[in-house]
């Protein structure tokens, strides 16, 4: 069975693409093929989409990655530099500043990160923080407040060595996020 755009790119449907850009995957693939985009690198394809079709950067990047995957230029989860990345998320019962403290503070990390050490690279409290991990990966954390009492903790694990490492990283980070949610005091407990 040959793969189609719908089977290769399960993260974005034709409908979402049509709503966001006015065209489906088949159309975007054809337009890029007409411009011999397989001969271009990632940056050049995205720039072409912005320049010729007036797409914003997010849509240009999304279409570029989908095109690269469909044309065998990149595997799912593979970044332009050849490394791989994985994403996991969990909603925790805490406001964003509290969640940020639990993710950023090394003393609190000990309570939910027993198997890996993180070294902070940069931070924009309470929205994001970047780390180098002791296993050689990069960990990028984004926090999004939900109704003031909950926060979505979204993690990208970058610099994975292979496509096979994606599943392993997802399992490990889902377990870590579950421990974070258990270790973190809830807002209700703090109010009482």
UniProtKB/TrEMBL annotation:
Domain of life assignment: Bacteria
Name of the molecule in the record: SRPBCC domain-containing protein
Organism of origin: Glycomyces buryatensis
């Amino acid at each position: 069975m040959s793969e189609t755009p719908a089977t290769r790119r399960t993260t974005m449907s034709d409908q979402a693409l049509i709503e966001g850009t006015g065209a489906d995957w088949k159309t975007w693939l054809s337009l890029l093929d007409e411009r011999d985009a397989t001969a271009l690198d990632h940056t050049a394809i995205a720039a072409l989409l912005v320049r010729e079709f007036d797409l914003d950067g997010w849509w240009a990047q999304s279409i570029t990655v989908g095109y690269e995957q469909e044309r065998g230029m990149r595997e799912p989860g593979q970044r332009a530099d050849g490394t791989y990345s994985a994403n996991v998320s969990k909603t925790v019962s805490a406001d964003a500043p509290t969640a940020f403290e639990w993710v950023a503070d090394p003393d609190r990390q000990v309570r939910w990160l027993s198997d890996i050490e993180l070294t902070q690279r940069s931070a924009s409290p309470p929205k994001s923080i970047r780390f180098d991990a002791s296993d050689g990966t990069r960990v990028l954390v984004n926090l999004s407040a939900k109704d003031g009492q909950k926060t979505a903790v979204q993690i990208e694990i970058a610099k994975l060595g292979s496509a096979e490492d994606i599943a392993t990283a997802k399992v490990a980070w889902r377990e870590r996020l579950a421990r974070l949610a258990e270790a973190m005091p809830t807002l209700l407990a703090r109010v009482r």
